[in-house]
Design goal:
This protein is of the alpha/beta class and 373 residues long. It is built from 15 helices and 12 strands. Helix 1 packs across helix 4, helix 9 packs across helix 13 and helix 12 crosses helix 13.
Length: 373
Amino acid sequence: MKNFVRLFIGSAAAWLLAFGVVPTAMAKVGFGKPGEKVDLVIGYQPYYTESWSGVVINGKQLWKKHLPAGSSAKFEIGLQGSVIVGKLLGEKNHIGYMGDMPAIVSSMREDTIDLRMIAVLGTSKMQCNIFLVPNNAPKFKTGLDAVKWMDGKLIAAPHGACTDRFALLAFEQAGIKPKKYLNQNIENITKNLEAGKIAGAAIWEPTASKIELLGIARRGATGEDFKGDDAGDAGFLVMMNEIIQDRPDVHRGWLEAELDAQVFIADLNNASAVAKMADDQTEGMDRKILWASLYREESGRNKLTLDFIFNDKVKTMLKASTAFLAGKNKFGGRQELRPNAVDDSVAREVLKARGLSSPLGKIDGVPLSSYKD
């Protein structure tokens, strides 16, 4: 297996070199004084369903309600978390929406830019942990059986992403070894599943729903079929510590907007509106597919839990994810997160002030027939 952290760091470094950016350690961007307008650039992932609170903040312009008058927020799409990490390290993004793996890695680069995880976007076992199999594969009784069938076959996943960690855990629990475990992007995975060149692939939402609903492949297994915290995943909100320290009003204001967005998503009456916003901010994705990625699950299992803060469940998941990274890479000799890598103190204050508790809500799936345009 390729070095897991190097895939993130390599992506970040490549971005920095490509744009000729060599950041000075702990350089100051300058965000003004409390109460002054602020201009922010947000890296977000509309093609990653678990982080759609960013889509809602952008679509509903929720930040305008909570940031000082005259402020601006520019949203830049990152197709993977590693791209956003690279821009954060290059000080081209100031806030980032990403999965747990890139968020953890970003927090370990404090020698370059001090980045901190300030809130939880959501947790799930059915967002970044989906195995697709060809339509002509056998009918499996369980997801575990589907992964056992992959023994000795060609399997693919985007390495260095949450799909990678899930695939490796699934192989281990199923007691199998693929003939080759290929590092492929979502475009190649789609083509190779359709052509019958691979026997399975781990992928995230909404791409998984797109491949499935277009009839290219079918769902074989999810994180629900496997044991342990590593079978689940999380999305985290990352912010430059410079903002946290110099602009507490902006820090709190963004978290207020994030809370608004998560409360909106948690209300199933807003499902159509959320899908429309995702549709408006993506290309090549049918609105029904986008809706299905967050709300469709025929057996009613949980698609997303909106935790907002690092509650006990998230802390356990984060510890397991960090241990996975340390065990595979021994990054900097660390075995655990650095102090202050997670700072959800203000998120907790915002939650308490609203009279709310974590989790804010749970989205349990409904049949595809429930979809309304």
